[in-house]
């Protein structure tokens, strides 16, 4: 008789999904102030205007499984607030918290996804291929079958399954393209989804479909969704859980639609029956009083926020940004994707191939059997010069491709999908064989018809030089496409620079006849080294061959060595020119990398205010410049900056014993420092510090005029700013702070409740 075995234990329930509650506390953002310099005898005095607030004292909470819509007219500050929420811009004051913990921008970007207003998708890939390539980069350990399953499930969730084999360039409506952009942001499973006007430019049906998709994602995945919208219709309002109504950078209401109607009724407004509360509020923005405090729901959201996430946030905030794929894996996937795009660009392939073949044959028939003598020497020089002009100008056809691809590249790299360097390496690996084929076609079609030096060494060297030239030109165009704002500007840059390089190549005027102040351009010209390489290759095998004979004496007047010597060349420079051309090829790609990094940095740190960070990660400090700090005409000896310090002490506790009093402002009698007064009406004496610090978030701003000098600053628990020694290293007037990249030079240390604070770049 068989023993009865107990039934197997049921599998453990799946862990609860990670959820994130996003809280904004008194967020403010100011525009850079302007100055009107008035010249004097020795320096310029400055008059300033008060700072203009784009956002002022914005507070709200966004919960998991809910959609928070930021609503307001144009210019209300919606996009600026979204940039702050996406960690693309740092606020002038206030703070962001995730599950009640301060946000680290680097780790926060890994937990969130930002979907810009304008869609960007590679046009020569299908919807399924677009998702598959991105999934390979974000899920490097997954198998092909697993990635296929993930992509299929996501397409079904987005209601795009029937469009999986449709090219992104055609066949997709605006709403479907918007859902593709949303889906790409969901592949790394972000906890917070931030969207800039996802319904902009869509018809009512497409807009409602997009909002339904977002609502389904928020509920099924327990995700926090924050979006901006200009003026939602009644159908779209049914998909929105909470509204943040903005006007002129201030909060007029934070809550649901019914609470907005209550808010309007309490202020004496009657909503007409033909309008909903939000439509009526949008018409009465100037008359609705500002909301004093955000209306927070008393009941928890449908998907609770688990405390285990809090520890995860703290751990992730200490992590350095890591990409999910190795560099090798990124290069392989990006190379595969780029090969597919190049292969499908059949017009470009056909054009480049026919150009190389036809131009080579035409030149070969024009210079056929070129011969020697003075005419042969001149014809060779003309042939090589035209070859350079054709090769360098023909690569400009790729300029519009690079410029169109740039927004997608910046979006993917700024989102952490892959590294910029991996893209450039993959781009290089794809163009190496492609341009080698073009070089061989051109070289074979022109070389033997013209009758150039017929040795395998010179033929191979000629093909190599042609290959390096087109690679260098491709790298040059890639660099210009990274800095040019538009295709027209890029084309103008290419034409002007190539014309300048050709002018100083030595073909029209030799280096010895150039003015001294233009000689440097001769060495910067790409044409110079390519032309020298071709001449050395041709005449190095004609070193002893007599090219010009004296008619009467039948003596040799000119050999190949003499031709090279007249141009300041010799046979030993054969490889030096190739090395220089390869150096240009690498240089332009490195410059392209820096230009793209610069673009990404500007998109993340646009109008970033002057900031401080603390060695204690629980404290957050921000410093706003005074109106005169960007006035670079003020002499440093009389420069008087005004520092405004606001700090968040929500998670800091003082020691149980009595804190030491902060030093008095008159401690150093050699200083001339004005009295320091908190902006809040409640002033705490610097000699009596509180033992415990309240856990409530109470940002305050304090001001102090500081004389030029050098030393440290100290911040008392009351918030006042005390100089211990003169503070020359607080700032300098060397650059204009209207320049977004300007930073205050150095401040060594500050003390916030005995916590060291140092400047961040």
TrEMBL record:
Keywords noted in UniProt: ATP-binding, Membrane, Nucleotide-binding, Transmembrane, Transmembrane helix, Transport
Comp. bias regions, Low complexity: 677-686
Compositional bias annotation for Polar residues: 659-676
Matches recorded under Pfam families: ABC2_membrane, ABC_tran
Membrane-traversing stretches: 348-369, 381-403, 423-449, 461-481, 487-509, 578-597
InterPro entries hit by this protein: AAA+_ATPase, ABC2_TM, ABC_transporter-like_ATP-bd, ABC_transporter-like_CS, ABCG_transporters, P-loop_NTPase
Key word Kinase present: no
A GO cellular component entry from the record: membrane
Skewed-composition ranges (Pro residues): 7-18
Predominant location category: membrane
Subcellular localization(s) per the UniProt record: Membrane
Membrane topology per record: Multi-pass membrane protein
PROSITE patterns: ABC_TRANSPORTER_1, ABC_TRANSPORTER_2
Keyword Membrane: yes
Gene3D superfamilies: P-loop containing nucleotide triphosphate hydrolases
Record-level Gene Ontology MF annotations: ABC-type transporter activity; ATP binding; ATP hydrolysis activity
Region described as Disordered: 1-22, 658-691
Domain ABC transporter as annotated: residue spans: 36-273
Protein name per the record: ABC transporter domain-containing protein
The organism's taxonomic lineage, starting at the top: Eukaryota, Viridiplantae, Streptophyta, Embryophyta, Tracheophyta
